[in-house]
Every structure is written in C-alpha cells, then in structure tokens.
Amino acid sequence: MTSKRVRAVRKSRKTLSAGRWVLTTLVAIIALILTACGSSDDGEVDLSKELPTEIPAGTKIVWADQQNKYQTLLAASGLDKDLPYKLEYANFTGGPAVLEAFRAGTADVAGVGDVPPIHAQLTDQKVPIILALQTGVDTYSLATAPKSKVPTAADLRGKKIAYAEGTAQQAAVLRAIDNAGLKVSDVTLVKLKLAEFSDALGANQVDIAPLNEPRLTRYLRDFGRDGASFVDPKSVGQISEGLSYIYARGESLTDTAKSAALRHLEGVIIKAYDWANKNPAAWIDAYYVKNQNVTADDGWRILRSTGTTGFPKLDDALIARQQGTIDVLDKAGQLPKKVKASDDFDLRFAPVIEQAVSETGISRGSEKIQ
After folding, report:
1. Which tens digits make up the pLDDT trace of 178-218?
2. Across the strands, what pairs with 122?
3. What is the domain extent for residue 173?
4. pTM of the model
5. Residue 365 DSSP code
6. Which candidate among 28, 138, 257, 311 keeps its CA 20 to 30 Å from the CA of 223?
C-alpha cells in the first residue's frame, strides 16, 4: 500500500472515530434529557387525582420513625399484623434528616413536628401533610444547663440557646424569645442537631435547649443532681401549638401502589392512637418504660402533661394554624423566602380521617389523662 493511500486510510479512521464519539455523546445527552423528563419532580407533584384504593401485592412502605414511636405504637396495639403491604421502619432524629431520606428516595412517610413541612417548602421539596395530630400545648420545656441559672423567661437575655433549624424546636425557641419581649439578637442561637441538645446542656456548652418528652425526663435524670432544671413554664408562656404531622414524600403520593397503601395506613395510625388513649398503662409500659427507658411514674407524668392524642380536621382552620407558625418564623427573619401553608397539605386524605374518626370515636383535640 502506498504511503498516500495509508494516509488516506488513517484519515478515514480518524474521521470515523470522531463521528462515533460525536454520536455516542449525543446519545448520552439525549438519554440524560429523557431520564430527567421521565423522572418525577417533587416540585411538580400532581395531587389532583383521586386516591386509589387497590394495593398491589408486593407494595412496600418505609416509615422514617423518630425515637421508635410509631413502630412501638403499631406493635403494641397489635395493628401491625396482616397489613396488605410491607411496612418497614428506619430511625432518624429531626426533620432535616427525614427530608434527606425523602430526597434520597429511601423513605415514604414520617411523623414530624410543625416546622419540618415549612423547611421542606424552603428547599423546594414536595412532602405534603396527610394527617395532623393534636396533643397538649405543653409539648416543650426550656431545659437549663447545670451551671446556668435561668429561673424565668425574663432571664433569657444574653443566654446561649440550642437551636435546630427545620425542627419544631426552632419555632419553640422563637416563640419563647418573642413571649419574653426579646429579639433574636438579644440571645445567642447555637446551631446543633437535636440529638446533641442534651449532651450540650450537660456539658454547659449552651444555657438552654427546648426538650420534649421523654428527652426532658432522661436529661433531668442524668444531670438533675448537678443542677440541671428548666425555665418556669408560666413565665415562658405557650411556645407550641401541640400540633404534629404525618407527611409523605411527594413521589410516593403519586405512585398508585404507595398512595393506596398510605391511605390504608392513615386509618391504622388513628386506630392505634385510639388504642393508646384508651389503654394508657399498656402504652406507657410498651413505649416509655421498655423502649425509652424511663420509669412508669415518669411515663404517667409525661402523658398527663401531653394529654391524649386527637385528630383535627384537615381543613382551612388547620391550614390557618400552620400559617401562624410560618408567621412566627417569618417575623424572626428566619425565612429566606415566602411560603404558604395552603401549599403544604394533601386534602385528599380529609375523608380518610373523617371515616377513621367516625369509626373509633376518637377525639378531635387532646384530653387530660385520668
């Protein structure tokens, strides 16, 4: 073969190779575009379709649990038996961790406080509220470090307060500051994870942290002898709505199998709480004593402070209450953009709640434990 012909062949091969590279690249780009278009975008979740009722065999729901509460509730009530879907649990601490699980697609539903749904909106995640739970408004106490003397809310000025963005504790802290007639700039907010609150208090790294039960009981048990206490609740005023929510990953709500399972599961949860309300001693033993490692006496004290669990209607009145919490964060300058509570609910579940409440006779609000 002549050198001229060799050069021509080499040129032809280079041209062919370049062409193949261009073609391969174009195919890859097109595939990425098609994948992006075909994947479900949480920001564009369509909740206009009627909730399905048929649950296909093999359907699985993963519950992002906190402090083992729902897993224990369903097991203790016996309502986790013979479910028409597989229910698995994964434990997390705090709303931000749950949102990460939703974002990663490793969880479908979770129980949280009233702030995580707001935080989800701020991060453009679609995780609508499908159920509201009402307990007493004395949900949180402002626990104090052993070396910190903060007897009343008037003593909050200048103190270091543990603060976890995207959690119900965030709103509790902001309400306490506002109730004391102070501004956020009058205190030092120390950003921590919820799981770090008790240890930070015990080590005197912060002066105050909002603790719910049974975290408060365990903290006082471990550090009370060293001087740990809590701010006088009467001086602090109401810092919680007593509202918590169950919300679901947007993509799970658009999946026909999972949304049908979530519809069924919602009724199960209401029936399980009806059991707990009617059997407080059994609930205390199963959860507070055997799972959360506090005494039965502590369990009774906790339940008397929180009251029973009720289920408000999923309606405009509830949305207005959630908007009030949004306004608390906004007033304190904690919202980088405007969000609306009305964008945060899946009202398709309202009839499901009404049916379960009617069947059980469970209260709408929280009642005192006798």
Report:
1. 999 999 999 999 999 988 999 999 999 999 999 988 899 99
2. none
3. 140-236
4. 0.83
5. S
6. 138
